[in-house]
Inverse folding.
């Protein structure tokens, strides 16, 4: 099966670096599907879930935003933050979501709505990806 190199990098670390056959990422204008030998592309990501297929197996990675570049059968994602499903602390994400919801609802004059909404979307993306992990765990179905 055809593959491409996928590298997901933040300022802190390399989150993911593998040969994959499919990538679906949250592009700024909607879901973006990338297959091997895709045409060159540079685009912006929004907070959400990335889906990758490697050796026929699906896995999920949360991303908070960043840039995606396709060049020469390689996809490089420079992410603000990114976590593989198994790395996500769900309790932390739930607390972050509650804090952000309270901030948005407070409507106080010094509240930065854009910032609060972005925090809300980051936490929701992490919770969504963490749920995928639970569903994918053997024996936890039903
Ligand atoms: P919090 O308020 O919980 O810090 P946040 O959305 O403000 O959430 P970020 O600034 O996006 O956090 O991320 C800071 C660092 O913490 C990054 O390295 C990110 O990958 C990591 N991180 C944030 N939330 C989680 C989480 N729920 N599980 C694992 N790592 C996380």
């Amino acid at each position: 099966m055809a593959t491409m190199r996928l590298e997901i990098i933040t300022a802190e670390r390399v989150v993911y670096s593998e040969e994959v056959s499919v990538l679906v990422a949250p592009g700024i204008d909607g879901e973006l599907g990338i297959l091997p030998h895709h045409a060159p592309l540079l685009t912006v990501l929004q907070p959400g879930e990335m889906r990758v297929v490697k050796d026929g197996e699906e896995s999920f990675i949360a991303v908070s935003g960043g840039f995606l570049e396709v060049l020469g059968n390689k996809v490089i994602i420079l992410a603000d933050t990114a976590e593989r499903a198994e790395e996500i602390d769900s309790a932390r994400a739930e607390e972050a979501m509650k804090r952000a919801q309270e901030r948005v609802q407070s409507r106080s004059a010094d509240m930065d709505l854009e910032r609060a909404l972005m925090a809300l979307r980051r936490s929701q993306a992490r919770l969504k990806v963490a749920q995928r992990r639970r569903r994918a765990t053997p024996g936890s179905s039903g």
User: Anything to note?
Assistant: The first helix runs from residue 90 to 106. The pocket of adenosine-5'-triphosphate is lined by residues 12, 64, 81, 83, 87-89, 92-93, 96, 119, 122-123, 126 (CB under 6 Å). The chain has two domains: 4-85, 88-136. The beta strands are 4-9, 14-20, 22-27, 30-34, 41-45, 48-54, 57-63, 66-71, 74-79, 82-84.
